[in-house]
Amino acid sequence: MLKSAFTEGRGLFIAVCLAGAGLTGCGPEAEALPEEGSGAVQQALTEGAPLATHDASCLKLQDQNTWSAYTSYMTPVGPALGLDDVLLDLNRAGPVLGSLNHPPAAGYKGGFRWNDGDMSTTEWIPQGMTAGVSGSTNVAVVAWHYAAAAPDKGVRISVADISDMSLSAVNYRHVLLVRPTSSGNFTTIPEHGGGLAWFGNYLYMADTADGIRVFDLTQIRQVDTSTTCETAIGKVGSVWCAYGYKYVLPQVSAYVVPTATVSPCRPKFSFLGKDTRGTTPVVLSGEYCNNTGTSCPYDGSTPGLGGRLYRWPLDSATNKLKTVSGLVAPEKAYIMNEPNVQGVAPIMTSTAATSYWLSSTRYGGALFKVSTSASRTAYLSGSAQWAKMPEGMHATGSGTNLWTATEGVSGVTDPASGGRVVFFATQASVD
């Protein structure tokens, strides 16, 4: 049992916001729109400024409601397994980092690197991260996206036993994410895997263009690992294949942005986070954008800074998002005023849901402490204050540790100088 891209200028924004598809809620709540006919413009943004509250009343997510159908599709594949079963069958070892080979980071406490093959592979790239407890085991979960040529193997996750970081290595295993397609068949998830959040039995994953996918950690299936299966997915003859992986984790449903919702209301889902502060837990989602090749729908006159952060309320009894007539409304939204954001975690020592850590590849790697009331505090890799190329994050509910996974600097395998790692620091050291 588990416990636990808009740069053409202001005129286009106005046309879409005021005339397109009946949209409302196109800017910060603090900035009232001028009177009709006066030429409304998007608010200028400043890097490092406080979070700006954003009106997201135009946005809803729709539950695809495939919970029962997708679960039944997987029945012929074999008996459902839980995460505990996989944790008894971990087949890889990641050496624990020592005093001489860990990345520089304020408040660094510990971490591990992947095995040699996973440190150097160019086929798979680490992205999102979350953590939780399965039975009595503390578990880190890291998503990797497939970066090689076709066929696209989609996204895999690594489940790692981090219960005892005093050991010489952390044991882990890769599991392939799949989507059921019909009774007894499934395919890969061709997504980036940019963000994860774990609530109860459900693992939430960012779907960049469309919303959030959900996977059930009690519905894992063991599949065939023969030579035939190394190049195949789904049912092949009398067996089921997953490109050589022993276990698959199936999608059960998804929360998607309706097709009628268009830019700038329609966001990107680049990363996710988990926030359990307050009475209602939330899934956090955010947009990656920069000032060069990747813009965001709200960037307007200040490309790179318009990435938005959304809070999606969760029903703590079911661990599903709260819906009204099948639709989920964001509880709150903010303009982050930061570029290159790759992950988010709540500042657990603050009960107010207005303060966060953001991991960013700005300046080669940074951790930003942000809130609605103050300009950011930055911990930079160039000043030996944070790791290079940080991605997903997880803050423990006790307010003790802040976990981060890194993508790794291309071609670097030394964990002290940019190689791929998973590490944790004291929350108090960066609060």
Shape: globular
Q: Helix content range of the residues, please?
A: under 10%
Query: What's the total count of β strands?
Result: 30
Question: What count of domains describes the coordinates?
Answer: 1
What share of residues are in beta strands?
A: 35-45%
Structural class: mainly beta
The biggest sheet amounts to: 14 strands, mixed
Taking Cα atoms only, what radius of gyration do you get, to the nearest Å? 21 Å
Spans where pLDDT lies below 50 across 5 or more residues: 1-41
The rounded distance between the terminal residues' Cα atoms is: 33 Å
Oligomer: single chain
Q: How many helical stretches?
A: 4
Average pLDDT reading: 90
Note down, in words, how this protein is organized.
The protein has 431 residues and is mostly beta strands. It has one domain (2-430). The protein is 6% helix and 38% strand. It is built from four helices and 30 strands. The chain has helices at residues 10-19, 67-73, 83-87, 116-120; strands at residues 2-3, 52-53, 61-63, 92-95, 108-113, 124-134, 137-146, 155-161, 169-182, 185-188, 196-199, 202-207, 211-216, 221-222, 233-236, 239-242, 247-256, 271-275, 282-286, 308-315, 320-321, 327-328, 332-335, 341-346, 355-360, 366-371, 377-380, 390-395, 401-406, 421-426. Strands 1, 3, 4, 6, 7, 8, 9, 10, 11, 12, 13, 14, 17 and 22 form a 14-stranded mixed sheet that branches. Strands 2, 18, 19, 20, 21 and 23 form a six-stranded antiparallel sheet that branches. The protein has a four-stranded antiparallel sheet with strand order 5-30-29-28, with no helix packed on it. A hairpin with an 8-residue loop joins strand 7 (137-146) and strand 8. The longest helix is centred in the first third of the chain and has 10 residues, at 10-19. The two termini are 33 Å apart. The relative contact order is 0.19. Mean pLDDT is 90; it is low at 1-41. It comes from Hyalangium minutum. This is Secreted protein.
